[in-house]
Amino acid sequence: MILTDNLTKRFGQKCAVDALNLNIQPGTFFCFLGPNGAGKTTTIKMLTGLLHPTSGNAVIGGFDIQKQPVEAKRLLGYVPDQPFLYDKLTGNEFMQFVAGIYQLPETTYRANCSTLLEMFEIATVADQLIEDYSHGMRQKLTFAACFLHEPKIVIVDEPWVGLDPKNIRFVKDFLKKKTREEGLTVFMSTHTLSIAEEIADQIGIINQGRLLHLGTVDQIKALQENPGSLEDVFLVLTQNNHEEGA
C-alpha cells in the first residue's frame, strides 16, 4: 500500500532522507520513529507529494505520488504536525471546503460530515469560526476532515499534540479499529514511544536520514540483549548510531 524505492531528499549538501526503502502492506499500523531532525517529516512530505524527492520514488496504493498525484491523493488522508486551517471559516464551512476538493457527492458529504463531527465531539461548535477553536479542537477538526472522503491510507505526523488524554485514547482506538476492521493503512510519525509500543504492527527507526531498523515491536526490542521498553531500546539504538556517525 505504501512503497518507497531508494527515496532520497537532499537540501544542498545535507541528505535529509537517504535511500529509504519501505513496503507497508494494507491494514498495517506503521509507526515511524526517530529523534528530531532524523528525516521523519521530510519523508512524510514526500509521501504526500508536498516535497519532490531528489531521487527515488514513492508509490501510494499503486500510484506514483509524483507521476499520478490525483489518483494517489484520492486514497490518501493526511494530518500534519501543524495543521493549516482557515480561521475565518466555521468548522462546517471548512468540512464543506474539503468535500469540494475531493468532489464528494452531496449525500456522501452530509452523511460523513455529520458522523465525523459527532464522533470527534465538535458538532456543537461546528458553526463557530475556527479562529475561536482551541488547539485541541483544531486538531480534532483536522482528523474529521482527514476521514471525510473515506481514505484507504492515512499519514499522520505527531497526532497527539494538543489532545487531552481522553482524546488521545479515542484517536488511538479509532485508528487501530480502522486498521483491524476496515483494512486502513496508517503511517504515523510520533515521539510518544509508549503509544507506538502499544499500537504498532510494524516500526521503522530512522536517524540522520537513514533507516536503521524495521520490524515488529518484539523484533526491535530483541535487538538488545536485555530489552526493556521500546523507549529504552530506541534510545540505545539512536545513541549508538549518533556516535558511529560522529
Write the layout of secondary structure elements.
Elements: E1 2-11, E2 14-24, E3 29-33, H1 40-47, E4 55-60, E5 63-64, H2 69-74, E6 76-79, H3 91-101, H4 106-119, H5 135-146, E7 153-157, H6 165-182, E8 185-189, H7 193-199, E9 202-207, E10 210-215, H8 217-221, H9 230-245
Parallel strand pairs: 3-8, 3-9, 6-7, 7-8
Antiparallel strand pairs: 1-2, 1-4, 4-5, 9-10
Describe this structure in words.
The chain is an alpha/beta fold. The protein has two domains: about 1-75 and about 155-245, 3-Layer(aba) Sandwich (Rossmann fold); about 75-150, no CATH class. The protein has nine helices and ten strands. It has a six-stranded mixed sheet, sandwiched between helices. The protein has a four-stranded antiparallel sheet with strand order 2-1-4-5. A hairpin with a 2-residue loop joins β1 (about 1-10) and β2 (about 15-25). The chain is globular, with a radius of gyration of 18 Å. About 35% of the residues are buried.
Would you summarize the structure shown here?
By secondary structure, the chain is α/β, with parallel strands linked by helices.
Please, what is the average pLDDT? Answer: 92
In CATH, the homologous superfamily of the largest domain goes by the name P-loop containing nucleotide triphosphate hydrolases
Structural class: alpha/beta
Secondary structure: helix percent: 25-40%
Describe the sheet with the most strands: 6 strands, mixed
- The appropriate CATH architecture of the largest domain is 3-Layer(aba) Sandwich
Secondary structure tally, helices = 9
Task: List the secondary-structure elements in sequence, H or E.
Answer: EEEHEEHEHHHEHEHEEHH
Strand composition percent: 15-25%
- Count of domains: 2
Q: What is the CA-CA span between the terminal residues?
A: 35 Å
- State Rg: 18 Å
| Low-confidence runs | none
